[in-house]
Amino acid sequence: MIRINSLEAENVKRIRAVKIEPTATGLTVVGGRNNQGKTSVLDAIAWALGGERYRPSAAQREGSAIPPRLKVTLSNGIVVERSGKNSSLKVTDPMGNKAGQKLLDAFVEELALDLPKFMEASGKEKARTLLQIIGVGDQLMALERKETELYNRRHAIGQIADQKKKYAQELPSWEGVPAEPVSASELIAQQQEILARNGENQRKRQKAAELERQAEAQAERVRDLMRTLEAEEHRLAKLQDDLKIAQQSAQDLQDESTAELEENIRSIELVNMKVRANLDRERAEEESAEYARQYASLTAQIDETRAEKLALLEGADLPLPGLSVQEGELTYKGQQWDNMSGSEQLMVATAIVRRLNPECGFVLLDKLEQMDLDTMRSFGAWLEQEGLQAIATRVSTGSECQIIIEDGYASAGPTAAQDAEESEHFGCQRQAKPSVRSAQQTPGRILPGEDGYASAGSAAAQAAPKPASTPTQESPKQWKAGEF
């Protein structure tokens, strides 16, 4: 894993001349007030390693006649230099490999030079980056589409089921009505059959009455015609037998009432209305139940799809335990990006960037003043644990800053008392800081000085021997950032 051993920069944006050696692992904080050159340090590193696409629009320090010069030494021994009017690139590889920007691109991750680009991306963009590096993007996207389709279908069916259920509940229900609509023609046919039977009964009654009249007339004639008594008595006997049979038959007959049928015919439309209402309610209840079954089935399919997604992610080689993708959003320990703590966001972003290019062991961070000291300490401890290096800027001159940039120079940090307080607070010791350069310097060109610092003055002044160090003005010396 490749890290940054040192940076030398002159006349880059607000930098006059600095040389820094960030701690090999953990967090190195470059502090200072506004407009002193802190961000210029990160821009210098990005330009040196990232190439022309990271070159600042106004790369040369305003007021300087000397073009920018950059030199970055990496932990694998490669030395990257940019200098001259055209900022020509020179890459020295101790292994003898062909050197150039292509070599740098092989182990320098783009997002490591611009970590905020990842942190400011949308949750879905972060998720796509994660899926890209663990190699399950296509499978998970297919499951995402399947889940979305099932969810939309279930949602639509759920709405229809609710509508059907409410519609069925609003329909009236009638007791004591047939299961199917009644036909008026059937009732009329039944009525006609009854009327026909009643008509036959009436004819039988009339026949019996006629026979009774004949018997009476014949009896009267018997009295008048005694001479033909025997013949007539025989006929009379026969008629009486017939009469007896007819009377017996007529006595047992009962007429059927058509009142109920007539009432049914009159009320058939009302009955059918109730029957149709009952049938509509039954159909609505059946449809509601069917849609409810479909909804339950789709819910089971959605749960199964989500389980497949979870199994796919759990089986993947994630850059950080606890990372996942839920509903297309990047999550860590079940929380989406906006619910993560500041240190968690930095850990997630750094871990993903490292996985994008495992050879790249560093990241650059700007504007770390948005983070409190506890969060910085937590993030720094995680970096050391993972063997990663982060170089960050912060608007501060407090003890949390290992490097202080002042007017384009790397200057001394807090006092010894502050160092002791910081050591007690952070559990580490600060290494030596560069001394504050004297404010009284002879105007002149900015030239590379001892240990990478710029020195100023005329040619005579440059030729003169350097004054001895005093307690108030130390000779510039190389400063190496301590652990955070």
Terminal CA distance reads 20 Å
Number of strands: 16
Radius of gyration: 53 Å
Helical amount among residues, as a percent range?
A: 40-55%
The low-pLDDT segments are: 422-484
SS-based class? alpha/beta
Compute the number of helices. 14
Order of helices and strands: EEEHEEEHHHHHHHHHEEEHEHEEEHEEHE
Overall geometry comes to rod-shaped
Physical arrangement of strands within the biggest beta sheet: 6-5-4-1-2-16
Average of per-residue pLDDT values = 79
Our estimate of the beta-strand percent is 5-15%
User: What is the makeup of the main sheet?
Assistant: 6 strands, mixed
Give your account of this protein's structure:
With 484 residues, this protein is an alpha/beta fold. The chain has 14 helices and 16 strands. The strands form 4 sheets. It has a 6-stranded mixed beta sheet, covered by helices on one side. It has a 5-stranded mixed beta sheet with strand order 10-11-3-12-13, sandwiched between helices. A 3-stranded antiparallel beta sheet has the order 7-8-9. It is rod-shaped and about 175 Å long.
Short account of what is shown:
The chain has 484 residues and is of the alpha/beta class. Helix content is 50%, strand content 14%.
